Amino acid sequence: MLNSAQAKELFNGEAILFGDTDGVPLCRAIELFGEKAVNWANDLTKGWSNGFGIGGYTVSYLNFSGFKQAATYANVEEIRKNPKKEGNLIIMNKPKVNEKRKNNHETKTENDMGLS
Q1: Nearest C-alpha neighbor of 70 from the set 16, 21, 14, 17
Q2: CA angle 26-49-43, nearest 5°?
Q3: 42 with 25: CB under 8 angstroms?
């Protein structure tokens, strides 16, 4: 698992120049984080990835934002697979609100609150 400083250091070591920006080719990002993580981060609509072409060949890459997204996805996957490792706590579902308690809050009147 990586923290932000480690992700930045890894990106700086793996990135290559694409035009006027640095990026990590998707093939290398897959080697680092896995296919699911890179598929998550390879979202052109969010500006996390791009491509650079010469002639009939284009290389797709993750920019630093996409690289951080892939690293984060990989972190969460590792926690999900090893929930007891290093004291990780995972909440799978939101706790249900006690219906009686919920109803009591919803049915209080102005008189109940001392406002009348």
Answers
A1: 14
A2: 100
A3: no
Tens-digit pLDDT profile for residues 19-54: 999 999 999 999 999 999 999 999 888 999 999 999
CB atoms near residue 104 (< 10 Å)? 11
> Shortest CA distance to 64 belongs to which of 106, 8, 18?
8
Cα atoms found within 13 Å of the Cα of residue 35, Cβ hemisphere only: 0
Nearest to 8 by CA among 61, 67, 48: 67
Q: Which of 46, 14, 50, 6 is nearest to 30 (CA)?
A: 14
Residues whose CB is less than 8 angstroms from the CB of residue 22 and which lie 6 or more positions away in sequence, other chains included: 11, 15, 16, 63, 64
Q: What separation in angstroms does the CA of 92 have from each of 77, 83, 95?
A: 13, 11, 9
Determine the Cα–Cα distance for residues 35 and 15; give it in Å rounded to an integer.
18
- pTM of the predicted protein model: 0.71
Query: 80 vs 92, which has greater pLDDT?
Result: 80
